[in-house]
């Protein structure tokens, strides 16, 4: 980015810390530019307050979190998927946010653009949640020409035309006036922010489903880098004659409950491999399925064989 | 006496004093009365800042105010300008992002000693180092006034606060020296009592290319109350009697200690340094 951005009229800054980074992109977004920042777990923790600010002030921007392992400084050079809930609710207060999980390098490209478009459309920060292994991967990708892939214009609430625009970090009404002491107005402000995401889950959320034509009663569901192992496992299972389907969450949050229910039908068991303590497995369990959680910690990806063996044990 | 009367959002009828006649179009009268205590210096700064903005020669729509949290953080909400009230301590990086993306804006950060120098201290020195082209007004009242009187990075050693009931054990920042050492292009220190000089310093600040810092000493009854210094007016008297103006003062010698026997004010630094991202 430091090399490429200045050549296309952009500005790259290495900020003094992540607190500065998130607030600089917030400032740039208000001033009329598309703006993004990228970090890994510890820096993502430092950015949470700013993310909450951008939610409340309804500013479009992109935050990329490349997940590493462990709490604290953890495993700086190892991948994980341990920030899925930090990405969802890491900032204080009640809110909803959009989080996308790319599965390969090509998707890193397109989901970055999609994430920015969603942030413009819903006037909210969007998080691209990926993993160390995915971003260090070299794969052949297709880069469209400018104008070929849709890019929404940038939204900024301020026009700098002398109207006296107020941007407020406290809960506020339509004029930007602080309503923090008014329970009714405050509740209205919070619900509006939450419902603009919740009421549009069908438009925001995307799920990839494969090997579903013969209505398998077992699915392997995953996301991000782990989905690659899951897909390899499903292919191995199919080769050996087991009826097992494949599901990949492209949108982690808002969680696409309705889409999953309607597309999976009468599935019995869902196996959820993931590189954390079994967080997303709980979400599938909440949909009423029998869920086998395959959590893996420590920095190594779940192998196709591990997933294959688990599935073989329960497959008819 | 009044120039304008309006029923405000709080349902109170507010009249602007005559001294606001020239800047009434820059004040959000419907948001008054302001939240500041009697004796607070922020009302004076609000007036001078509005006047300096009006007479800066820069179109009013190009002026933006960025504030963080605290008593001083509320100043943007009373000005009829584009005003951004951001999170605690982050006014400077927000302002840097604004200025980077839109260099035409005249970006002014206003914050207290806590917002700029404690929670936001790292951003302050780094913005000065880069010489980001923004203005920073630090309202120094020597204490955290809004939250009940805890010590701040400018509380003098020995001063009693809620969190230093036996007298403060730490040394304060010497704000002009810090700003100069970190790289600021312009550094001044005035008090709200020195209205003409402060007003001129604000006008100068707008002309500076680079990081401009104006420290404004402002009385706070939360500070004077805990230290048996009388009320805010008594602290004003101290500032009036004991302050001296020395534009050429040695910056390492202008600390303000608890006795307040020596208060040096002046326009200390004006220098040309390359500006970031230009």
Backbone structural class of chain A: alpha/beta
Rg of chain B, nearest Å: 18 Å
| Integer count of domains of chain A | 2
* Most extensive chain-chain interface: A-B, 37 and 39 residues
Mean model confidence by pLDDT of chain B: 93
Report the CATH topology name of the largest domain in chain B. Rossmann fold
- CATH superfamily membership of the largest domain in chain B, which one? Thiamin diphosphate (ThDP)-binding fold, Pyr/PP domains
Q: Give me the strand/helix succession of chain A.
A: HEHEEHEHEHEHHEEHEEHEHEH
The level-1 CATH class of the largest domain in chain A: Alpha Beta
Record field, number of beta strands of chain B: 10
| Low-confidence regions of chain A | none
Give Rg of chain A in angstroms. Answer: 21 Å
* Stretches with pLDDT under 50, minimum 5 residues of chain B: none
Q: Major sheet of chain B: order of its strands?
A: 4-3-5-6-8-7-10-9
The CATH architecture term of the largest domain in chain A is 3-Layer(aba) Sandwich
Q: Roughly what percent helix of chain A?
A: 25-40%
State which percent range the strand residues of chain A make up. 15-25%
State the secondary-structure class of chain B. Answer: alpha/beta
Estimated share of beta-strand residues of chain B: 15-25%
Number of strands of chain A: 12
CATH fold title of the largest domain in chain A: Rossmann fold
How would you describe the overall organization of this protein?
The complex is a heterodimer of chains A (316) and B (278). By secondary structure, chain A is α/β, with parallel strands linked by helices. Chain A folds into two domains: 199 residues, Rossmann fold (3-Layer(aba) Sandwich); 109 residues, 3-Layer(aba) Sandwich (Rossmann fold). In chain A, 37% of the residues lie in helices and 20% in strands. Chain A has eleven helices and twelve strands. Chain A is globular, with a radius of gyration of 21 Å. The model of chain A has no long low-confidence stretch (mean pLDDT 95). In chain B, helix 1 packs across helix 6 and helix 4 packs across helix 5. In chain B, helix 6 links the parallel strand 7 and strand 8. Chain B is α/β, with parallel strands linked by helices and 278 residues long. In chain B, the strands form two sheets. Chain B has an eight-stranded mixed β-sheet, sandwiched between helices. In chain B, strands 1-2 form a two-stranded antiparallel ribbon. Chain B folds into two domains: 33 residues, no CATH class; 237 residues, 3-Layer(aba) Sandwich (Rossmann fold). Chain B has eight helices and ten strands. The radius of gyration of chain B is 18 Å and the shape is globular. Classes of the chains: A alpha/beta (316), B alpha/beta (278). Chains A and B meet through helix 1, helix 2 and strand 6 of A and strand 4, helix 2 and helix 4 of B.
